[in-house]
Amino acid sequence: MANMPGTHHAIELSKSLPNLAVGIHLTLTCGKPLLKKGVDSLVKEDGNFYKLNDFEKGIPKIDLDELYNEWEAQINKLQLAKIDLSHIDSHNHIHNFKEYKGVVDALSKKYNLPVRNCNPIKNNNEINFLDLCNYGTIRDMSLKYESVREECFQIIETNILKNINFEKSEAMCHPAFIDTPLFEGSSFNIARMREVDILCDSLMKELIKKYNIKLCNYNTINLN
């Protein structure tokens, strides 16, 4: 996300990991726009973007030209920071809203960036979508990690088996160390720490090896 308090820190971290694929996480539902003018339809009276529930209620009347300009500004900010973007994605999956498909397609074509599809793909058995840690036991932070560790990995292994026959499968996750801006700015916050524990656990590495899973990203995957 190009408009967050941690953006510059993330940019510096990414430069220390040259093989890490970094996508643009476009936003229309969190924080403020990068552009100071010409974004009236994108923001509330306080200058912040509308929230996702505003879109679900049909409140914002988004000007598509303004949206194109703002999203292009977000892309350009990261490119100017020498980030070699791998794909287009968005906060709250708002790039998948059908109303904005034309804007996303135009940016994808201009910058030669593939677009992450957040919906099941009809008639395509090669690609499936997996929300890796979106399960009650994993998200319940009232439980100490060691007390639910084995159960967490039983859940994850079960879901790997559901997806194992697909040639390609995405595993979505949201790991993070929590600071005040994230805690106050996102409704999904504390449980991100559990995802850090799981992804860094030796049991995760064992599962990857057990099922001969090849980790890939938008720079290495064959999208044709």
Automatic annotation (TrEMBL):
Query: A single GO molecular function, which one?
Result: metal ion binding
Q: Which cofactor does it need?
A: Mg(2+)
State any GO BP term from the record: carbohydrate metabolic process
Origin superkingdom = Bacteria
User: Is the Ion transport keyword given for this protein?
Assistant: no
Alphabetically sorted, this entry's keywords are: Carbohydrate metabolism, Hydrolase, Magnesium, Metal-binding
Q: What is this protein called?
A: Carbohydrate deacetylase
Organism whose genome encodes this protein:
Clostridium thermobutyricum
